[in-house]
Each structure stands twice: as C-alpha cells, then as structure tokens.
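Reviewers of the previous submission asked for a worked example of the structure-prediction workflow described in the proposal, so we include one complete record here. The input consisted solely of the amino acid sequence. No template or homolog information was supplied to the procedure at any stage.
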Amino acid sequence: MPTSDQAIGAFRAHATPQPASVRVAVVQDAEATGETAELYDQLRDAFFGFVPDVFKLVSARPDMLRVLVDGYTSMFAVGDLPREVKEVIALTVARTASCQYCASAHDTLLRLLGTDNQFADAVASGALDHPSIGPEIRALAELARDITQHAYRVTDQQISEARALGWTEAQVLEAIWVACFFNTFVRLADALGLYELGQLTVPSPTPD
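From that input alone, the workflow returned the following structure tokens.
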C-alpha cells in the first residue's frame, strides 16, 4: 500500500478545488460533532488523514453516513478478492455510469496500488479486451459493467464463466456485491452534483 504522503500527493494532483457546493447541505470537517465527528475520524484513519467528499454528501444524516461507511468497509477493507480487483470493479462501474468523481478517485487508487500503467489505462478507458487484462479479471469487470448497465440481463453463463476461471463462490458473490453497492456511491455523486476531486474542500483562510 502507498504511504500517506504518496496518497495525499496523488489525490491533490487530480483535485480541482472549487467552491464548496453540491445540491445538499454538507457538514465540513471543522463543523462535525457527535456521531458525524466519530465517523469522520474513522474515515480519516482509512483515507490517509482526510474525509473523501462522497461521504460528506450524506453527512447531515449520521444514520445514512454510517451505512455508507460500513458499506465502503464491506467492499474494500475485508473479503476474499484482491484489492486491485475490487478497484478494477469500482473503476469499471464509475466509467460505465459516467461518474467523473468516482472514476478519478478509483483510477488514482488503482494506480497507487502499483498497478501496471498499461493495465490501469485499459481499465480506465473501458478497453476490457486489452491483452494486459487477464481473462479472470476481465470476466468480473464485464460482469460489473453489465450490472451497472442492465443487471436484469446478467446470465447464469456469466456467473459460471467466472467460476470456471478460478473465482470461488465467495469471490463471485463479493464481486457482485462491490459492483452493486458501489453503484450507490456513483449515483449519489452524480445525483447530488459531485463531479471533481476536492470539490468540497474548503479553502484555507487567506492571511490579512
């Protein structure tokens, strides 16, 4: 995993600070109290010292924020799938749904894992048939794409093919879980007007 400085530097390189505005009221770090403050601390521990903007979208409702935090943990902090595969699924979902914020965030995270640039470029562009993407990862990425586009069209054959390529029952279920739950993040970001990394960053006061 990257160091804290490497991660923060990578996200800053992609960030486009704008006025702290989306379509709902959000709780900024300095304003957080009670359960929201506790959850922000948990997020800072997981995200190199900062609270990602997407979580702030539901920060006015600590009950919803906890669901989002727990859901993120269930996708990325535990389980049987390698973290790189989970990031491929997330980036594929974001790209398929045209979520600029989530695509930027998870492209950055995928590359921070030390992923080969050719591989990362192929995933980011949606070129899932690129030779740098192995058939076992391609199967899960295509499944995530299809879940995002039209989940009702997913077939028994797709699930069987994933198993035949070596994924266990638990890993296939986890891939579907990540694709489905990550769609929640994608839809929240787009519906509430979160488009750029750093969009909800409050500028530091300028000295007089």
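The longest helix spans residues 169-191. We consider this example representative of the routine output the project will generate in years two and three.
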